[in-house]
Amino acid sequence: MLIVLIALKKGINKIEQKTNTKVLCKYILDESNQVIDGTLFDCEERQEINRLVNKYSYLINSDFVYGYDNCQLLLAFEDNIPNNSIGILWWSTNWTPLFERK
Question: How many Cβ atoms sit within 10 Å of the Cβ of residue 48?
Answer without folding.
Answer: 11
